[in-house]
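From the shared-data thread, chain only:
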Amino acid sequence: MSDISTLMDSVYDLYEKSVHVLEDDQKLPPRDVMEEVCQTLLNVSCLREEGRFPTFRVCFIKPDSELLDTYIYSHALLFKEPILFTTRELHKLAPALNANMSYLMLDVTERPFKAIGIIASYTAWQKIVTRELASGNRMPRVPNVLVAGPGELKLCFGETSIVNYSAGRCVFYRTDVFTSTPIADALRKDSAISEKERLQLLYRVLWEVGFFAHGATILIVPDAESCEEFIDIKYELPSRFRFGDEYDIDKTSGAHHEKELVTYADMIAKLTSVDGAVVLTKDLDLLGFGAEVLMEKMGSRHPRMKFIGYDDQEQTYKTFQDNGMRHRAGYRFCSSVKDSVAFVVSQDGTIEACTKHDGKVLVYDNVSLPMI
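Structure, as tokens:
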């Protein structure tokens, strides 16, 4: 099982740092158990069923766990007879599993491991779709392994990705960029928007953009005057946060408030479909979209860069030139516009966040969206 040793070597320490563990049922199983489970899942991930590769999640929580009682729309259904956790059995079972709304429950207390049931989840996901909520946890917040594609596994907490393993390589995600880094400080500075609303909007927008799979740039600036020298906004479309409804007392409470926030976020996400950046202020007011970063206004010198890894260590092997035009434009913009923040989303959904801090453009890549 040495082919997944890279994943096993790092996952436990990273999980403890990334997740505030509250319950025993939110802890990972022993390493030898995880390694065996992941190897089986890796085998299954490469097998087609009716022409399609499987995608599903497995978890380790007990069906009678009190933790599940807190998720009133999740239901633990048990097989009448447990199913052996083998490549052959999973290959046939996988098409019945929905990675967005279910977990396959494993009993790993003794070998051979067995699949004992399915957790069917109907939580905030439905409320997000119906615009009753702007964000939230669609599934119980327990450790799980997602089979994401052939040869690709993700260790997750609920739906938040922590480590992605693909073809022997691990990609580590940051889950705290929006809450406890210089990026978060820059977003908060001189903003009148509450932390909750800021996270809800950014989470929703970036989540939607990831599904569009076209890539995007979102620039957040102190105000219109701070950036007018450095960008040309093709489609100016001024709008106040949530269309200004925060000032209408009769419309700011309950479901209407949430639906307006989601409607506003979805509009912004769709604007990224046009070439160019979407530009927002610190108060999340919209300035426009289709914005071009005016490189000639920023000089020819590369900005001083600092790439930060998941462990807060500087990744000195990364350079400005390693990245594409969209990313380099974001770096230059943040270097030129004081207190600005840029989010650059790749076509594969990978999110990068940057801002200028202590004289350097600080870059966090592989950002994982927070669940709130």
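The chain has two domains: 2-172, 182-364.
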